[in-house]
Specification:
Elements lengths: L9 E2 L8 E2 L10 H4 L12 E3 L4 E4 L4 E6 L2 E2 L7 E2 L2 H4 L1
Antiparallel strand pairs: 1-2, 3-4, 4-5, 5-6, 5-7
Length: 88
């Protein structure tokens, strides 16, 4: 099974609580299902994950949002601007 087809990592603390979806996969990256729920905070558009740089990319906004310790930092002032080459 590839990364896009991973089963959601669902846990429940006990029988009385609702199961919760883990945002972090076992390898420390954001879980694919979790990433599908995020949108660009600037454009409200789709994001793509750059595994090599550990960033969420919004080409429409021209921004790359960092993912630190598996946690997406979705603040515009924390994002870096994409270069012209990256925009293509």
């Amino acid at each position: 099974m590839n990364d896009d087809q991973q089963k959601p990592d669902i846990q429940s603390d006990d029988a009385k609580t609702e199961p919760r979806l883990n945002a972090i996969s076992q390898d420390g990256r954001p879980a694919p299902l979790f990433l599908q729920t995020l949108i660009c905070p600037v454009t409200r558009g789709l994001l793509t994950y750059d595994k090599a740089r550990s960033e969420l990319i919004s080409k429409v906004a021209g921004l790359a949002f960092p993912v630190r310790d598996g946690v997406p930092i979705m603040l515009e002032d924390e994002a870096r601007e994409l270069s012209e080459v990256e925009m293509k």
